[in-house]
Design a protein that fits this description.
The complex is a heterodimer. By secondary structure, chain A is mainly α. Chain A has helices spanning 2-19, 24-40, 50-80, 100-112, 135-157, and strands at residues 89-94, 116-121, 127-132. Chain A has five helices and three strands. Chain B has one domain. Classes of the chains: A mainly alpha, B mainly alpha. Chain B: This is Na+/H+ antiporter subunit G.
Amino acid sequence: MAFQILLNVFLAFIWMFLKTSYTPATFFIGYFFGLLIIFTFRRFFSTNFYLNKVLAVIKLFLIFNKELFLSNIAVLKVILRPKLNIKPGIFALPTELTEDWEITILANLITLTPGTLVVDVSPDNKILYVHAMNIDDTQEAIDSIKNSFEKAIMEVSR
Amino acid sequence: MIVIFKFLIGLFVLSGALLSLVTAFGLLRLPDVYTRNHAASKSATMGVMLVLLGALLYAYLDTGHFHSRLLLGIAFIFMTSPVSGHLISRAAYNSGVKLWGNSVRDDLAKQRKKTANTR
């Protein structure tokens, strides 16, 4: 991915030198044409076309924001309810992610999800231990959310 | 347009302050370290972020200055706050702080016991 971006910047500079005009506008035009060239020659790269990955990162960021908003509303409801009928607990969540940074992002996402908080990561990076605010009614929903998070992170790292 | 922005600024700052207040309520009401950590690591994060966002918009509208430091502050809080919540609850668990009495499951304790037996 980094190589393709570097190549694109390089192509933009070549465009600037061909035009002998050194303004940001020319750079962006050259960058756009370089993007088209890289898209045309995408099958010669070992990795995927990098714009896909950029889109995946943006999607992940939007998921982050949405979850933060929803979790705040959920916590607000629990705190301001007059009777405290929560059932907290710690459950184990097996994960398929392997890289350290992927697990960090997943743990951050889980912490910002409604009603869950990561307490510990097992030493072999296979299981996350998650403290849930309300364990029975959220377990299923949380598992499905986790699957969507894991998928979104895998789309970035693929 | 300016009226809309003023409305947005008020909304951001007020809801941020409200969330911080709710965090304080949560710290008082909730029963144990872990549930309190839920309130502290979520509502406080978003509360501070919203207040900073309101300040950013206000400064831009009022003086025309775009304070990129506020933007950086939002990004840093967004990245570091969940991690600090995780570290606090982990440290609490490792130093043996008990869960609340009404807690239903504890898979981590089971796992710890298992590894202690096999060792």
